[in-house]
Write a sequence for this structure.
């Protein structure tokens, strides 16, 4: 005989599905990211010191562009902004590497398990978002500190906020394009990066599909750096090095597309399990061809030395693209994201079951990736 007064405890899987946002997971990852973020601050400090030394000894490329910044003690916030920008780009590079290793064929090293790489990817992602935020905040502070137009306090804060945080708000020069690209990368990084913590609501399939677009955030960040980073403003070995460092990343992306960890993502043109639908087949083939073209383009840039940099005594080329081109591209990307989300959304009576099956928790996903994968 059963006790009718005994409370009914719902299955753990259903409790997880009921949560719209995985706050506990975010808090746990934030705590786990403390050592990583601490290291990032140390690296930022070293970059800040290196930039300062170059200003003091007269070798800074930035002071060739803006000579007034040679007064480093007065404009120290600008140099701190630069330091956060470079460390943020470095951490973005690292987190993309971890993400590609997690979703592709990982090296045969026993210590590099899927769970460990996944944890590194999450913590470095949070650190990257933090560094990008500090890059924007210190730029905001640098604009207030400079106050070239002698504005009153209220007007100065409003103008600085508009230029540092509102896409399209920077009114002049190369910054009209470069800062727009950087802010789009920042806000997309927040949305696509933190989407992991709502995967129990959206389903794991939708989250994984949307998260793949995080590579766009990295591309925009590099574009922002090469276009507006005064340390790489002019042609030279350091600018070429920044281009060259993208080659290993592009190669790793191609490897991930050719040999994904999940069998369902492999491109099969013949035999059992071959692609049954033209749209996925076209998308996968196009993606691989695009990465190959990117590698060829990077190689051409590195070998030729023609990388879009300026020459100190030469005339700068016209600013391109215009803002409307970037806004059009962002609109197209948004429509693609909406279409992907609509196509992969859980629906009907099976919604709860699909969420529980696809996005129950991170441990299930890690164990699935650690299982031996069939070859072919």
């Amino acid at each position: 005989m059963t006790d009718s007064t005994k409370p009914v405890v719902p299955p753990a899987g259903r409790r997880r599905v009921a949560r719209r946002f995985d706050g506990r997971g975010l808090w746990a990852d934030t705590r786990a990211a403390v050592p990583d973020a601490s290291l990032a601050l140390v690296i930022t400090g070293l970059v800040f010191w290196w930039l300062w030394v170059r200003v003091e000894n007269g070798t800074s490329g930035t002071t060739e562009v803006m000579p007034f910044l040679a007064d480093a003690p007065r404009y120290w916030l600008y140099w701190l902004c630069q330091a956060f920008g470079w460390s943020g780009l470095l951490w973005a590079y690292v987190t993309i590497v971890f993400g590609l290793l997690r979703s592709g064929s990982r090296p045969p090293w026993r210590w590099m398990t899927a769970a460990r790489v996944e944890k590194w990817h999450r913590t470095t992602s949070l650190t990257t978002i933090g560094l990008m935020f500090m890059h924007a905040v210190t730029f905001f502070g640098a604009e207030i500190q400079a106050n070239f137009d002698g504005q009153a306090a209220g007007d100065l804060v409003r103008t600085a906020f508009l230029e540092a945080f509102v896409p399209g708000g920077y009114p002049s020069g190369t910054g009209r394009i470069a800062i727009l690209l950087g802010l789009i990368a920042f806000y997309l990084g927040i949305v696509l990066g933190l989407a992991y913590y709502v995967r129990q609501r959206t389903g794991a399939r939708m989250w994984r599909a949307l998260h793949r677009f995080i590579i766009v955030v990295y591309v925009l960040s590099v574009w922002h750096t090469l276009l507006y980073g005064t340390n790489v403003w002019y042609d030279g070995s350091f600018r070429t090095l920044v281009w060259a460092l993208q080659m290993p990343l592009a190669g790793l992306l191609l490897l991930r597309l050719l040999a994904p960890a999940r069998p369902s993502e492999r491109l099969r043109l013949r035999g059992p399990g071959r692609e049954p639908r033209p749209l996925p087949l076209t998308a996968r083939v196009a993606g691989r061809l695009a990465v190959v073209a990117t590698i060829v383009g990077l190689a051409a840039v590195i070998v030729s030395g023609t990388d879009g940099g300026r020459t100190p005594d030469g005339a700068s080329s016209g600013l391109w693209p215009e803002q409307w081109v970037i806004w059009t591209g962002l609109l197209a990307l948004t429509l693609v994201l909406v279409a992907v989300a609509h196509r992969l959304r859980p629906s009907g009576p099976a919604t709860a079951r699909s969420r529980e099956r696809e996005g129950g928790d991170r441990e299930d996903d890690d164990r699935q990736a650690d299982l031996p994968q069939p070859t072919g």
